[in-house]
Amino acid sequence: MHLANRSLFIALALLLWSFRVVERPEAPIDTTPDRDNAVAHLAHFEVDVVPRIREAQLREMMEI
């Protein structure tokens, strides 16, 4: 269990390190929760996932 948690953490940290998640200007994120049901939740939204560095440089850094 601990190994799976650590592997998942490392994978997500690597994704967040290598990409920026940005809001699309033409579709702003509505942060007002939907309260029609017993459980409040946010509406679906769209984002752009933008690489922080070039793919070739990222692959070079990932090589062991």
Provide structural commentary.
The chain is of the alpha+beta class and 64 residues long. The chain has one domain. 39% of the residues lie in helices and 16% in strands. It has 2 helices and 2 strands, in the order H-E-E-H. It has helices at residues 2-18, 55-62, and strands at residues 19-23, 47-51. It has a two-stranded antiparallel ribbon. It is flat and about 50 Å long. The two termini are 26 Å apart.
Annotate the secondary structure layout:
Elements: H1 2-18, E1 19-23, E2 47-51, H2 55-62
Antiparallel strand pairs: 1-2
Task: List key phrases describing it.
64 residues, alpha+beta, two-stranded antiparallel ribbon, flat
The percent range for strand residues is 15-25%
Using the CA coordinates, give the radius of gyration: 17 Å
**What string, H for helix and E for strand, traces the elements in order?**
HEEH
User: What distance separates the N and C termini?
Assistant: 26 Å
Question: Numbering strands along the chain, what is their spatial order in the largest sheet?
Answer: 1-2
Compact description:
This protein is α+β, with helices and mostly antiparallel strands and 64 residues long. The chain has helices spanning 2-18, 55-62; strands spanning 19-23, 47-51.
